[in-house]
Design goal:
Chain lengths: 115, 113
Amino acid sequence: AQSVTQLDSQVPVFEEAPVELRCNYSSSVSVYLFWYVQYPNQGLQLLLKYLSGSTLVKGINGFEAEFNKSQTSFHLRKPSVHISDTAEYFCAVSDRWGSQGNLIFGKGTKLSVKP
Amino acid sequence: EAQVTQNPRYLITVTGKKLTVTCSQNMNHEYMSWYRQDPGLGLRQIYYSMNVEVTDKGDVPEGYKVSRKEKRNFPLILESPSPNQTSLYFCASSLEQGATEAFFGQGTRLTVV
């Protein structure tokens, strides 16, 4: 079964510093990959997704992620964070050919941006 | 505005008292699902539905029921809630499984005492 590992449960960072949130998934078969963000007291919204094509994917709010098939990783990056980026971030994967194609989520990474 | 609407947002109930959390989407999506979110565990899928009258179990279905009589609605039913079902619940919908963006409701925070 597919699984997703987010290596850091919490990432504190100062404003305007770069950040990388790490995500690894278990299966080497073809997958769709997603990053979602959850702001306090809100639902999840899509940041970006990888379906096929270029391995570097750009999303909203200046975030980007790189799909690395050999390392089964999909790390999220931002070159300069803002206070407003404080939120919890979830990596998710879906098998292309799985029986369900359901989203499997990681446990989340809480990004805390300090002034 | 395209959205997924859950009600109620907050609910406190007692053990054993049946409750229903409603979910409605206005995007004509075929696929809908329910998740629960617990600290340190991320989101775990409870049930999903690929279309009207088609539902199936997710990873943590015990103690929950769902129905999909209409395309837009996907209520979550707890016949006899227990304290271990205290959680934050999210409904989500998408055009299809897998490749497309999932749209989430605002969440329902349930406390069972």
